[in-house]
Amino acid sequence: MEIQRVIKEIRQGKVAPIYVLYGTEQYIMDETVRLIEETLLDEASRDFNYNTYDLRETPIQTVLQDAETFPFMGEKRVIRASYAMLLTGAKLPSSAPEHDVNALISYAGNPPDYSVLIIEVAADKLDERKKAVKALRKDGLIIECAPLKEGALAEWAMRQAKHYGVQMSTAAAELLIAMSGTQLGRLDKEIEKMAVYVGAGEEITEDTVEMLATRELEHDIFRLIDKVARLQIEDAVRMYYDLQRLNTGSSETKGEGEPLKILTLLARQFRILLQIKTLTPRGYSPQQMASLLGIHPYVAKLANEQAHAFSEKALRRILHRLAEEDIRIKTGQIDKVLALELFILELKDMMIAS
Prior knowledge:
single chain; elongated; five-stranded parallel sheet; 17 helices
């Protein structure tokens, strides 16, 4: 079932006895559990009727025994069991507890009406061949908690802004995603911060995002390459100097501007551009390329736009040069700060060379 429908039903008070949340977007899992808690438990009974378990340490049968225990000072119990890798094809470590899968299958067939069991699986997919998965799919709600797609991500950001009592344009939402990344937890904190700054009823604009958003180093690398693509080499060099200041800044940012880290990220981004450059003529969409390259669709869209400025030959030349600089730095042939500065200065020639 789609997560949006599940959230809507929970808000209407329609809470199922079993939920299986799987995927890589932990924020969606956390928010779903929080909503279930708020719907079913009050402050007075929460400490008695809400328990969490780590299935890397606790066998599933212990969790089920708790779920079958009547609530105390309340009408419902909520049991949260994380890291249920027994529902995937992954090989469990020797230190893992011995799970009674048959007990889980039996519970799924007849769950008590006074408990809500939430099973979390931090994996892209479940092993549909397993009897426990089949039983849970038949009698429980299995929900994928995957990263939001391109358009949905911006829409989510704007909804979060409304949740905090402010407005946010599509352009501002997309800029925030480009600057701060695609992790929902991080974006939520950024939106909350900006909402406090602009005040209730006001709007988070692109200027607000530019001024307040916490940048990811990857975004600054993207912007640096964008300057190069526009042949604004002096601006690119100034950005490199700004990144260097991160390396000597506070303990929170120190190391972010380390030349070798910058070099690695430059190589990663140019490699993505080359891959997109070779996939585009074959008819791949940004969504398909994102899946193949293991990047977010929004990142693929921006990289696809950026790749137009470079020829395939230029990208291969740039990647070869980055590999050479990496060797020269690590063998002590050149100072790492100087090496990156010279590389950026020579990028224009590498782009236009025949």
